[in-house]
Amino acid sequence: KMRRRGKSRLFASLSLTSFLWASDPVQSFSAPCNRLFPSIVHPVSLLSLKGPRALCAPIRSLSEAFQESILDPVLKEVTADVVGSSKEDGVEETEEAWLQRGIERLKAVAGTTQVVEVLQEIAQESPTGALPDELFRALFSFDLDSFQLEALQALGTRRSVVVSAPTGSGKTVAGELAIWYALALGLKVMYTTPLKALSNQKFRDFRRQYGAHRVGLLTGDSGVNREAPVLVMTTEVFRNMLYDDLNMVQDVFAVVLDELHYMNDPSRGTVWEESIISAPKSLLIVGLSATVSNAKDIVGWFEHVHGPTKLVTTDFRPVPLRYLYGSNKGISPLFRDPDAGPGGRAQKLDSKKKLKRALELNPALLDEDSEQQFGGQGSSSWRGDVTVGGNSKLAYAARRGGNENRRPQQKVPSYPYVARCLARKDLLPAIVFIFSRLGCERAANDVANSLRSDYGLGLSRADTARITERLDAFDRRVGDQAEFTLSEERRLLFLKGLGVHHAGMLPLEKTLVEDLFSAGLLKICFATETLAAGINMPARTTVISTLSKRGDNGIGPLSVAQVLQMAGRAGRRGMDQEGAAVILKSRSDDAHSGRDLLLKPIEAIVSHFRPSYGMVAKLLRQYTLAEAEELTKRSFGTYVQELESASAEGSDGSRLAKLEIKMEDLRQSVAPYTLTEIKDYTKASERVEAAERILGYLIAQTAANEAKTFEALLPFARHGAALILRPSSQASAALGVTVHAALLGVRFSSDVDISAVTVLTAPPHCEVLEVQPEDIAHLDLEEGVGLPPADAREMFATMEALPRDKWVQQPSGRFRPALSEGVNLEVLRVGSKVVPSVEPEYLESGEIAKQRAKVKRQERRRARKREVLALSEHTDLEALMKDAEELDKIEVSVRRLQKRLAKQKKRREKQVEAGSQVWEDFLAMRDVLERFSAIDGDNKPTDLGLLVGSANSDNELWLALILTSPCVRRLSAPELASLISAVMIQYTRPDTFVAFGPSAAVTIAAESLRELAETLYDAQVEFDVDCPVQLAGSYAGLVESWASGLVTWNQLTSSTSMNQGDVCTMLRRTMEVLRSMTSIAALPNSVRDNARTAADAMNRAPLSDVTYLDRRQDSSAEDELAPIIIDSASA
Predict the structure, then answer these.
(1) Looking at the DSSP assignment, which residues form a beta bridge with residue 1110?
(2) I want to staple 953 with a disulfide (CB 3.0 to 4.6 A). Which of 387, 639, 666, 959 is the partner?
(3) Which of 781, 794, 790 is nearest to 836 (CA)?
(4) What pLDDT shows up at residue 718?
């Protein structure tokens, strides 16, 4: 019934919506509103606004925007009713009044969980449906930074966002803003972290911030409040959720990927890529990353595979950093300008020259390294030893009995000395990063033993009392249920303001350390680098003990990102004016090493996308083989390779096309001559010019040498001696023409300096000339040769008597007397006849003669080439050669570009092969799955394949084969847990002692699986698949003993040399797999029941969810720690 055909679809949808709206306005309006009102009101906000109050504004806008003749009568009627009802309800409140009233309401309940309900009510009352930034500013006690609001505005325009900011800049606030925004709209949001410990901490923080009933936790092995609007989980759990059940994210507004830079992790980076590729495009992604060098590439990839994405970058830190260097001389600024360095105030200097100077090494540190080799206050050759007077026992022993030829070790500051320096400079609290568990423990004990104060490092009597109260509360509430108590050594560390944090500790103990440190009761925490991965333990100072650490491939240097991640933990917003990052001198690193590392560019994120058996099974369950191939080609690595290839080929290809056009024009310009002919003639001319230059040089050199000789001989030469003059400047063109003459006399300007030489030239010249010694080419000193001496003296006297103004300078530069001045010409003619004549060849040396002949040969060759080319005298040889030279240069550039494009083509082919390598690995795993009947002929997973897709392991096929083997059905629940641990656990620490061994049933089951393991291994070798096929029972006895419930925690941990944290990790990993087995329908009921029984038996303190600690909500016990014990059934 529409009168305008072009708008029929829009109004048909709007008309249908108006019919349905009367019964269910939100549900009926949510679908078309995204298409109808993008410019009137934020579409997402309409999804949660109850009632007509928020809908009346856009509908009123539509009724005013379109003519009445176009509107559907039913729509007009409904619109009028809505607008009328909205006026009756008082919707005419201005937006400014609504906003001001909302801000006041939020501030009234700030700091309580009631703020969520108030925010939702304010959003529902929005006159336009929009949510201004001012509402969210009111939620925080500090002013939001511009980049945080920029991220929020991107979400408001339905765009994903990637925030790349330094550690400590407040990028987590951008993730919290996404949560607030979703809660305001009544929608769900997911928050993912790379670590379970970080997920636990976020869970605790969000419960306090948004309310316990609004926050849930999913970590794979546990779940709390799964239906909550805010769900915290590890990234692996989110990835598995996308593969298993997309319905779980259908109603989710956004997912926050915290620590997005974990994409660069070689072993786990693929999880982030899979999550982004598989996430539905309706789900907004908020990526929070530390500063990376290729953030634009990441955002481009986001847009390519997911949808519109906004990049938000900043180098701003609310608390600026200052970099220091610690040695046995104390702690000093690392840079010339103490405020220089990444995140420092000097980074904003307007002059590059000033910034460069500011980033120079502190001059006071230049000579420090050589001095410190001989020790000093606080020096130690090994920080781990107990120190006495600043010198370690090992260093003392080395000085007494060490090898004299041994290279002297660098003297490094001991940790007690570093602790005293930090205290003196008011740099506490501090986190000291040491890259080994044992190193953390030793350092803490060294510092504790060196403290003499009864109240510890910088602690007051009240602080010690508070620590004691908290520790007692911890023991009361945790000890009885978790069978865990703090050791006296650990309590002593706490009472001295010291703490240790590493993976070898129980999660509940690490949580206690985090809470004590956050409360300001611990002054120094010695921790491994895992603490830098997002755990919220802000400190005034961070100390980096060394710039290298041991990895899988031996000891290697830290990356720039790792150093900045640790340094960025320094500086507490609202408490510190600036943070401090101290780089300690070590045996391998000095101040130069620290400065150079900090000034290096941050590493770029690279792709680590790779398939697994589980991925293959899950993708083939949902997609065809062709669709799965397309998905695997959407990785970040493939995108970057295509981007680089397209950019390089585009610029080089365009330049090559332009050069080829110019090259063709020049070829026509030099025609009919070929480039070879012109080059040949040009080279011939160049050879002539080169030969003439050499000849001129030889002549000039010879003349200079002879002039010195003649200048020495002339004073002793007789009058009338025969000589030969060199050609004048006028005769220089006729090379070789000489003039014969006789010496009349020499005039001196002083006793030794010759002013001029007077000579008489032979016929036909017959003239008197004044020349210089350098004009003489030959002088004959023999008697009887030349003029008679008497005649020569008479002529010389006559010339000397002639005034100087009567001498005329000739064009050649020589002087002669004017003939009109009474010179006797007859005498000159008679005298000239007796001037001897010498052949010119006699004058030239052998080298000059050879070079003169070479010049003539080159001239003849050039003349022949000119005749061959038929070059006329009017040919512009200079322009022709210029064009030929330019043509030659362009041809060289064209050849280089062609070679570069050829290399790029080969590189692109290799990149395609590398990109296809992922697909080849996918197909290889598909072939292995097909070999074991997990994939059928139609590339669809069988029951075994579905089990592979549901399995949680490094080798899902191996775990699935074990779970379907007959021997598993005969195992009891503890024995099943024991066997699962043999497949899953890869604990590789050497010299580990375990007292408990697996039972006979587990040993028999493991032996029966050996042949299956070999078969799978052979198949993987055949298809070139690299996945672990593990069946190690070294620690299976520990798991079986704990699952049986026959041992206590103290009995279990005392039976092994493993750290309690490692035992906890092993058992919880086994629990995680057992819990995942309970929901796999393909498993027999008996196996699932045993898995459930084993998981429940293992889920007891201290492994249960006692690790989730929170503060008491009642004010009477504000400082007391209250563990939340979550029953496994409810979880």
Answers:
(1) 1122
(2) 959
(3) 781
(4) 84
Does 899 have pLDDT greater than 90?
Answer: no
DSSP H or E stretch at residue 396: helix 393-401
Helices (H), 193-234: 196-210
- Identify the residue whose tokens are 């409140």: 93
More confident residue, 386 or 993: 993
- Cα angle vertex 651, ends 650, 653, to 5°? 65
Q: How far is CA 453 from CA 330, 618, 832, in A?
A: 22, 61, 120
Which pLDDT does position 1124 carry in this prediction?
Answer: 33
Average pLDDT across the chain, whole number:
78
CB proximity list for 506: less than 8 A, separation 6 or greater: 484, 1060, 1061, 1064, 1102, 1107
How many alpha carbons lie under 13 Å from residue 1043 in its C-beta half-sphere? 32
The DSSP code for 246 is G
Distance CA 24, CA 44 (A): 17
8 Å CB contact between 599 and 167: no
Instruction: State the Cα angle at 193 between 534 and 152, rounded to 5°.
Output: 85
Tokens of 345: 């105030």
Strands 579-584 and 554-557: unpaired
Q: Which residue has the tokens 């941050």?
A: 602
Question: Exposure string (b/e) for 643-657, b if CB count within 10 Å is 16 or more?
Answer: eebeebeeebeeebe
What does 964-1032 look like in DSSP terms, one character per residue?
TSHHHHTS-HHHHHHHHHHHH-----TT--B-----HHHHHHHHHTHHHHHHHHHHHHHTT--------
Residues in the chain: 1131
**pLDDT above 90: residue 874:** no
How many degrees, rounded to 5, is the angle at CA 1106 between CA 1101 and CA 1109? 155
Question: Alpha carbon of 817 to those of 726, 731, 800, 994: distances in Å?
Answer: 20, 21, 10, 123
Candidates 355, 260, 270, 329; CA nearest to 298 is 260
Six-digit token pair at 147? 């980049």
Domains, in order of start, for the chain = 142-313 (3.40.50.300), 415-599 (3.40.50.300), 609-714+847-918 (no CATH), 950-1098 (1.10.3380.30)
The kind and range of the H/E element at 715 are none
Confidence of residue 645 (pLDDT cuts 50, 70, 90): low
Q: Go through 413-441 and write b for each residue having 16 or more CB atoms within 10 A of its CB, e for each that does not.
A: bbbbbbbbbbbeeebbbbbbbbbebebbb
Element containing residue 71 per DSSP (H, E)? none
**Host H or E run for residue 485:** none
Tokens 């104390």 sit on residue: 330
Which pLDDT band, with edges at 50, 70 and 90, does 390 fall under? very low
Residue 534, phi-psi category: left (phi > 0), alpha (psi -120 to 50), beta (remainder): left
User: Beta strand pairing status for 391-392 and 548-551?
Assistant: unpaired
- Cα 387 from Cα 376, distance rounded (Å): 13
Alpha-carbon distance of 473 to 1118, in angstroms, equals 12
Residue 162 has pLDDT above 60, yes or no: yes
- The Cα diameter of the chain in Å comes to 147
Residue 414 has pLDDT above 90, yes or no: yes
Q: Do residues 976 and 1087 touch, judged by C-beta distance below 8 A?
A: yes
pLDDT for the residue 367: 66
Q: Residues 6 or more apart from 396 whose CB is under 8 A from it? A: none
Q: Which of the residue ranges 516-520, 706-710, 886-890 has the most confident prediction, judged by mean pLDDT? A: 516-520
Residue 581: closest CA among 597, 602, 605: 597
C-beta separation of 303 from 333 below 8 A: no
